[in-house]
Amino acid sequence: MxxxxxxxxxxxxxxxxxxxFYMLVVKKINDSLKVIYKNKKNIxxxxxxxxxxxxxxxxxxxxxxxxxxxxxxxxxxxxxxxKVVGTYTxxxxxxxxxxxxxxxxxxxxxxxxxxxxEEARLIYIGAINNEFVAKSDVKFIIDVGGGSTEIxxxxxxxxxxxxxxxxxxxxxxxxxxxxxAIDRQSFERARFAAEQQVEKIIKLVKSKNISVAFGSSxxxxxxxxxxxxxxxxxxxxxxxxxxxxxxxxxEFKHFKxxxxxxxxxxxxxxxxxxxxxFYGVFKxxxxxxxxxxxxxxxxxxLYEMVGDHKIxxxxxxxxxxxxxxxxxxxxxxxxxxxxxxxHFFKQWQxxxxxxxxxxxxxxxxxxxxLHEIGLSINFSGIQKHSAYIIRNSNMPxxxxxxxxxxxxxxxxxxxxxxxxxxxxxxxxxxxxxxPLLQILRLAVLVNNQxxxxxxxxxxxxxxxDDDPYKIALTIDKAFAKSNRLIRLDLEQEQQYWQQNxxxxxxxxxx
Length: 510
Hints:
alpha/beta; CATH 3.30.420.150
């Protein structure tokens, strides 16, 4: 793997979309970013999804071949300078691990699959960092992708509504225009299906008094370019212009017949379905004027990767704080568990040969802060309730695997467990996950008495025989004498570990 080079000033973001895979490479010169390379391949990944949400072998193969090509361009890039995200199709594909495992063989960078809401947030961040967009007050952004459509509303740099709907130009082309024939009935069916998808948020969106609306993505870029083709000099999308464009398009009989200078042969396959989605949403929300913006998901990723590494961490921190507040978590106790986890982790780190990065370390502390979030449902089975809430919450700043890891750590934080039931992760290895889980379990357990005066220094943790799964925990003699319940709990924990080889917990009084 590539080593970290502090003088390396190029960054790459790759968007593994349902329609196309797109790579953008920029160079940081002083404080500005200059685009030095772009590469877009139409993979049509979403066409490979069957009714059971299984990706076909051929679509996986197309995707992997593309990543192999992209890897050639990124040969000298450190991992910290490359950000790769998968969107709708990789989100919903039940066999996405097949794709991710095959990708790992030819592409040496982690692929993060993001939730629809996280995608909408990143699109918003990317769009508002465009100078023109930033001038407006209440901003509305829509992005019609290959498999899903993202909608975000925000004030200044803060998104206040992020939504994702499972409707995209590739999936709707397959569903409503299987023979690529154009007729009003099919178009209206697709349009009303799109309206139905946003039905529940129409009132909310209209109440926000949007001052200006923006659209990103290939579909909206095509609409903008066709308006320029037919003589609309500013390219602004208005209800009248959109109605006229739909009427023109419905005069064609087949996708391949659509004849506008700016519409590429590739885009013709998905333009009508994308137009139907956009038309449905535009009408449903009563938008009066919409501008095309080039900046979206990739720019959002770049901004958070290059702009300031702290920005992303702050977003995650705020997400955790919001959850703590929403579910009335006992903060004093949660903080005590997090402090203990930090104490154990620092000691573990001194002895362990395994490298755990800052993100994973943060996930450990966040799991400590949220381990009791399920108390709002019931104490009995709290670990399952807590895991469920974390798994199903909107968590800005987290990709799907980070969120899943957080919920997994919390799910296994107490009681008996079986290591072989732990889920598979493509971004993390067991040698990283196991120690986090061990530390979390011990941190929660020694705080069972809920004493906010517990001194973590009463415990000393060591790794035995250079084996990161073998832990020796030494308990201060005076502490052990006056806290017999904690000692009994630790002895029970010892038995749980024995049932899960290669884990081992050795207890000492010293």
